[in-house]
Design goal:
The structure is a single chain. The strands form three sheets. Strands 1-2 form a two-stranded antiparallel sheet. It folds into three domains: about 80 residues, 2-Layer Sandwich (Dna Ligase, domain 1); about 80 residues, no CATH class; about 150 residues, no CATH class. The longest helix is centred in the first third of the chain and has 31 residues. By secondary structure, it is mainly α. Helix 2 runs antiparallel to helix 3 and helix 3 crosses helix 4. The chain is elongated. The chain contains 16 helices and six strands.
């Protein structure tokens, strides 16, 4: 072959190479940016488990018919060295994604978030049921994590349970989180909420942090009226000082676990660690997860000699120093309850259907 013929073939080979190169680029571009037809698309939600590899993620998206070319997603992740940055969770695709848009979503961790609201007074089992309602975790798995010695040691909780240390708040949680990780998110703020000053105040009162949290958890269940919290705290402290049983229904209710809305005399007479009618001192641990106001009240009881309190019909309580005064308050409550039942039974235009005057609440008492 002459040199002239070689020179004539070189441009032809170069054109073929260029053609293949351009075709390859166009094909790769097609794979990266192609998606399912939008006219037939229905919004899809895909769950990526924690620990999934890029290959796993591509397979899941393909199996769910979300991504037509899963190999393109793997290629992008490898070429950009972002395979380890793809985040697990639950992803919603309102429109058909290409490999590129799916990659961007996975890198950003643009997952579905569930606003889980833990309210003050919720106990461990309430939180477990709430998480289960969102299908975030099985309730028994959450309770198991919250009572695991290893988990509690990891969280710095010196108790048999995380009860009381879950901070009431709104948590934006995602699917496929492990129970222990959810627990960490909910317990972590406790350390900043229970300040060193609060620890010092507890120590001066001869109380451990666990005892303060236990008192606060009872306060939280006994009253939702802010100014009453220091008064309930005072009743608890005064009874403990005198060696009197606390005799507080919420502790018994927590202990029986099967509460149906009515506490019976049989419940009050059933032995158990949380029965403060039969036992003196505090129960073995918190009965709910208290809010900050109840924690502060536990450390700042009102300066009063109150030993008793009885419910009123308006959500407040009447506080008493003696059993005789307390008995009168209880009689008044029962009278008001009977009259309320009578009003419901009588026609609204009956002369007997008059509005009773509720027992006036006590004025606020400043913490000591």
């Amino acid at each position: 072959m002459t040199l002239l013929h070689q020179e004539k073939r070189s441009p032809r080979i170069l054109r073929i190479i260029m053609l293949f190169a351009v075709s390859g680029i166009l094909f790769i571009t097609f794979l990266v940016f192609d998606s399912y037809p939008s006219k037939d698309w229905k919004a899809k939600t895909v769950s990526i488990p924690q620990g999934s590899s890029t290959q796993d993620i591509a397979y899941i998206l393909s199996a769910e018919k979300t991504l037509p070319h899963p190999i393109a997603l793997r290629g992008i992740a490898i070429l950009t060295r972002t395979a380890r940055q793809l985040q697990y969770g639950e992803y919603t695709f309102p429109s058909p994604p290409s490999a590129y848009t799916a990659w961007k979503k996975l890198i950003a961790g643009d997952v579905v978030k569930y606003p889980v609201i833990v309210r003050p007074g919720s106990n461990l089992y309430d939180v477990a049921a709430l998480l289960s309602a969102y299908s975030l975790v099985k309730p028994e798995a959450f309770v198991e994590a919250a009572t695991s010695p290893n988990t509690l040691a990891r969280l710095g909780i010196k108790a048999d349970s995380a009860e009381g240390y879950i901070v009431p708040d709104t948590y934006n949680l995602v699917k496929n989180m492990k129970p222990v990780h959810i627990l960490e998110v909910m317990v972590r703020p406790f350390k900043s909420r229970f300040t060193p000053e609060m620890e010092q105040k507890a120590a001066r009162a001869g109380l451990s942090i666990h005892e303060v949290v236990t008192i606060a958890s009872i306060i939280e269940k006994e009253t939702g009226v802010p100014y009453e919290k220091p008064l309930v705290s005072a009743v608890i402290r005064n009874r403990l000082k005198l060696g009197m049983p606390l005799q507080m229904d919420p502790t018994v209710i927590y202990g029986i676990r099967r509460f149906d809305g009515t506490i019976t005399r049989s419940d009050l007479r059933t032995p158990g660690p949380y029965n403060t009618y039969m036992n003196t001192g505090l129960p073995p641990g918190p009965i709910s997860n208290p809010g900050l106001a109840s924690l502060k009240a536990a450390l700042n009881p009102a300066n009063t000699d109150y030993l008793y309190f009885a419910s009123n019909t308006d959500g407040t309580h009447t506080f008493s120093k003696t059993f005789a005064q307390h008995s009168i308050a209880v009689k008044n409550l029962r009278r008001l309850q009977r009259e309320a039942v009578t009003r419901k039974l009588l026609p609204t235009n009956s002369p007997s259907s008059t509005t009773d005057t509720a027992i006036p609440p006590l004025p606020p008492s400043e913490p000591s």
